[in-house]
Amino acid sequence: MILRKLQFKSNKGVFSFKEILIVVLVAVAFFLIIIYDDSSIRPNIQLKTCIANMKKLHDVTKLLIMEEPDITDITVQTLLDKNILKKIPVCPSFKIDGRYEIIDEVGQPVDVICIHGKDKIPGHGSFLSLKAKYIDKVE
Ligand SMILES: [Zn+2]
After folding, report:
1. Are the C-beta atoms of residues 57 and 89 closer than 8 Å to each other?
2. CA distances, 60 to each of 12, 15, 19, 66 (Å)
3. Protein residues within 5 Å, CB atom, of ion ligand 1
4. Model-level pTM greater than 0.90?
5. N- to C-terminal Cα distance for the chain?
6. In the chain, at which end, N or C, are there fewer CB atoms within 10 A of the end residue's CB?
7. What are the distances in angstroms from CA 80 to CA 4, 23, 45, 93, 127?
8. Beta strand 14-15 with 98-103: parallel, antiparallel or unpaired?
9. Angle CA(120)–CA(125)–CA(126) in degrees, nearest 5?
10. For residue 65, how far is its CA from the centre of ligand 1 (angstroms)?
């Protein structure tokens, strides 16, 4: 009697409780796969966040150079001191000591590098190469 109440009518006919149960279980299975596959998604999000951080640093550094063409040795601290940045961006993959170094050598395009630790262990790498790999492909 209860099962009959749970039956839903459709154009083709009637879905049984079993059919609905199967659909729900498949949906739950897909949901669980998405949740547990997080480990493979997370590095991607971290990399995207890192590239976004580097893009911001890259863009504001270029603006600063346009405003002050004689400026040299730009660091993240310079951007902070000049109130261009409110806080130091941190690479999400290396929360404790993920940081960025700005490369502004004369005659070279401005670049930002993701590094971490006192020993400057390479992180995600150079913004310009990541941009060529990920951003330029998309745009
Ligand atoms: Zn990074």
Report:
1. yes
2. 61, 59, 57, 10
3. 50, 91, 114, 123-124
4. no
5. 59
6. N
7. 68, 54, 26, 22, 20
8. unpaired
9. 115
10. 24
